[in-house]
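WARN retry 2 of 3 for item q-0093 after timeout on previous attempt; input resubmitted unchanged.
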Amino acid sequence: MKTGTALRGGIAAGFALLLGAAAQAQIIKGFDITVIGVDGKPLAGAKATLQSLTTESAAYTGVTDAHGDYVQTGIPVSPKGFKFSVEVSGGTAVRYIREGDADLQSRNDRGNPDIALSAINYIKIDLRRATSFQGVAKDGQGVPIAGAKVKAVNQDDPAKTFEATTNGKGEYAIKELPFAGKGYQLTLERAGQPPVVQVVSIPQLGGLSFDFDLGKAVTGAQTAEIANPAAEARTMYQMEDYTGALGKAEEAVKSDAGDTRKAGLLIKAQCLDRLGRAAEALAAFEAFNAAYPGNADVVGVMVRLAEAAGETKKAEEYKKQYVALGGKLTADNYNKGVEALNAGRAKEAVPFLEKAVLDDPKDADAHKALATAYAQTGNYAGVVVHLKEYLKLRPDASDADQWRAAIPTFEQMAHPKGGK
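OK item q-0093 returned
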C-alpha cells in the first residue's frame, strides 16, 4: 500500500507523441452469429444480446431470424471481447467471444481469428455440443478417487445421460454435452458407497470445472442442491464479465447460507471496483470487512479507495487496521520516483520506481509509473513488461485502452526491424 497522496500529475504526457495513430479508436462492422438449437435446427425467434466486456453500457439486443442468425453492425471495438447471450427454453445460453477464438471464421492480416479488425465476424454456436464438464474427485482425506463413474443427466431431458470414469488421479472429463437450461445433475458413483449428487446450473457455454470433494459434498439420498450463485459469480468474474458477475453476487448476498453470502459480498465489492464504481465499491468492501473482519487484502483495498475518494481521515484509520493485520505500507519509493518523474528527472526516478515495484508487485500505479520512466530513458523492453503488468492488474482502468494500443509501438521500438 502507498501512504500519502500519489503524485500522478503529468505522468502520461511523455507518451503522447509515441502513441500516435495506435491509440485511435477502431470500429468493427459487426457480428453474424448463427445459433443451432439442441434439436439441430436453426434457433429462430430467440431474444439475443451482445454485450461488450470493455464498456458496460455497450449492449445490443436483437432476435435471431429464420436461419438462426443474429446480426449487429457498427459496433465499437472491445479489446476484452464480448458476451453473447441467447434465450433458450428453460434458460439462457451464454457464450464469451474473444480475439483468437477458434470458432471465429474471419481472419486478420496475420491469418489469425480477430474480433477487432474484421469487417464481419462470423461465428456458429451449436447448442447440441455446448458444454463440457471436467474436474477431480477426492475422498474426505483429500485422496484422489480412481475408477469412479461420473454421470451427467440433462435436466431438460433426463433421458440424455453422459458418463465418464475417473483416472488414477481422480480426474474426469465429459465433453460436448447439449445445452440444458435447467442444468445437469452430476453424480459420482463408487462401488459399495452411496452416490454423491449435485445439480449444476450452466453459467456459460464451454468447459466448466466441477470437483467432487467428499469432505464437503452432499451425499446419499439427500436432495441435490442447485449450484449457488456465488460460484457462478466467481466464474463470470474470472471471465471478466463483471456486470454479469455483479448480478449473481447480489443473489448470493441474499442467501441464508453463510459461505455463499460471504463469497457474494466479496465478489460484489470486487466487481464494483473493476467497473470503476469507486464509492459503491468502498461501501461494499466496508460491508464485507464489518461482517468478516481480519482480511488484510480487503482493508488494503479500502485504503486505496478511501484515498481516491479524498476521505483522508477514513484512509488513515484503515491504514492502522492494515498494519495491525500484517500489511506493509510502501509509499516512500513510489512517491520519490513519481516526484522525480514529474520534475523531468526520469533517470533519477527509475531506481525508486524499481524498488516500489519490488515493495509491492501488485501495485498497478507503480508498474505504470516505471513504464513511463523507462520510456523516457529508452528502456522500451521494460516499458512493454510493466505496461502489460499494469493492464493485468487493472484491466478496466480508464486509460487501459490507451496503454493497450501503445504496447505494439513500444515492442517495435524495443525490437526494430533487423534487430534482435
